[in-house]
Design a protein that fits this description.
449 residues, alpha/beta, 2 domains, four-stranded mixed beta sheet, 10 helices, 30% helix
């Protein structure tokens, strides 16, 4: 097997309107840590590429544009490229050049949230798309030209880094509060890339947790705890590139931000301590864990099913839009949704990208678009046990939350905020059957290929 890892910052030089918190009302005021694009190219029977980007996410226009550029330049097909977003809430949401594939409602150039799409100028977003795409092509060219012989191995451990934010209210619903007893996926998976002498050159660590240890009061660009973790790992292993692979973190927050029955925003120093905690867990796997060699016979496939929403009436959103207790972000989103329902532009279905990789006969990677619940991760890993399975959310696009059937029945933020994203209503419960069925079918295609 051959591999190469590389990284390059893409931090915007000028102030930008960060995405992730509706309470923000002005642009960024500086940089705490650089935002990176990182690449890991693996070559065996075929070539696969993992890209990580320190951003909240991206729309389909961005993802498809980058993948088309990679196919034209290097012959990499859509299923051979995974683009995973750290989902830091102290960065930007990336927008591509195709208006038909744009999520809308946000631009890095805006000064405030608006309910009028016509007020947004996407020129700066398109310029950033072009710059990031150029950076990615440069990184991938470097990887292609600097592949070295080496070995891939995988280790795992349990980590208490994250906690659920969906606490049962005793009446069939949930409240936004730390749920310490919640059943979540605590598995930390670490892929080690080492050269022929055994020197660590690449560390790909996967864990599910919102990169929101800091809150909306932070106005400095940052990759939150994941940025700190990667810096600590790269200091501990000189010459190595550390890539954070965001897992299924839809309802998970850092345990350090839990304070009794509420969450609080950590200071920069506290955020960095959280990053140190996760780095210590990764190093423990690398130094004292049982690492198993991956035989590196790659098979890849992709599926793109449709997920359907309820057909909520406009009057529902009118109540939100006129509620004086609702914040301006909620009211603006409700106005946009009402308008979209009435003019016929609202969406009642959404494509959902699922990619399955077999790294060898015992090691899988299942990557899903959107803010996927930790419950999907638990379910998928049970389906494929005893094999090792990395489950990623926030991959190949981030449009909205992807809740389970149970979450949809309980309600709560992750199940009810679809109107932020021009979706007509909450997802129908059957999306769980669609997603799991597509994963199983895609996996079977690879097993019998």
């Amino acid at each position: 097997m051959k591999f190469c890892c590389a990284s390059e910052p893409f931090t915007p030089a000028a102030p930008v309107f960060m995405h992730g918190f509706g309470a923000r009302q002005h642009k960024s005021v500086g940089v705490h840590d650089e935002l990176y694009v990182k690449a890991a190219m693996l070559e065996a029977n075929k070539t696969v590429l993992l890209l990580t980007i320190d951003a909240l996410g991206a729309d389909r226009g961005f993802v498809e544009g980058v993948k088309e550029a990679l196919r034209n330049a290097f012959g990499l097909e859509r299923d051979e490229v995974l683009i995973n977003f750290s989902h830091t809430h102290h960065s930007v949401f990336l927008t591509g050049p195709d208006p038909k594939l744009r999520r809308g409602g946000y631009s890095i150039a805006q000064e405030r949230w608006t309910d009028n799409e016509d007020e947004l100028d996407y020129g700066a977003d398109e310029a950033l798309y072009a710059a990031v795409t150029e950076t990615i092509l440069r990184l991938v060219a470097h990887c292609r030209d600097h592949l070295i012989e080496g070995e891939l191995s995988v280790g795992r451990a349990a980590s208490d880094f994250a906690v659920s934010r969906r606490k049962p209210d005793g009446a069939g619903g949930v409240v936004w509060s730390p749920y310490y007893e919640g059943d979540i996926d605590k598995e930390l998976l670490v892929l080690k890339l080492a050269d022929g002498s055994g020197t660590v050159k690449g560390i790909l660590y996967s864990y599910g947790c919102h990169t929101t240890s800091m809150g909306p009061d932070n106005m400095l660009l940052s990759n939150d705890f994941a940025g700190r973790t990667s810096r600590v790992l790269e200091d501990a292993y000189p010459g190595a590139t550390a890539l954070f692979l965001q897992g299924c973190a839809g309802e998970l927050k850092p345990m350090r931000s839990a304070d009794g029955n509420r969450f609080r925003s950590l200071s920069i120093a506290e955020m960095e301590q959280a990053g140190d905690d996760l780095a210590a867990d990764v190093i423990a796997v690398l130094e004292r864990g049982e690492l198993k060699r991956v035989d590196c016979s790659f098979r890849t496939a992709i599926a793109d099913p449709l997920l359907y929403t309820e057909r909520t009436e406009a009057e529902h959103y009118e109540r939100i839009a006129t509620d004086p207790a609702a914040n301006s972000f909620y009211r603006s989103a409700a106005v946009r949704t009402m308008r979209a329902i009435r003019d016929g532009t609202v969406k009642d279905r959404l494509p959902h990208c699922i990619c399955v990789w077999h790294l060898d006969d015992r090691t899988r990677l299942v990557a899903m678009e959107g803010e996927v619940s930790t419950q999907y991760s638990l379910l998928i890993k049970r389906l494929f046990a005893p094999h090792t399975t990395l489950t990623l959310g926030y991959t190949n696009g981030v449009y909205c939350y992807v809740p389970t059937r149970r979450m949809i029945g309980e309600g709560g933020y992750e199940a009810e905020c679809n109107f932020f994203f021009n979706l007509r209503g909450p997802f129908v419960p059957e999306i769980e059957d669609i997603i799991v069925g597509q994963i199983v079918q895609t996996d079977m295609r690879l097993r019998w290929a």
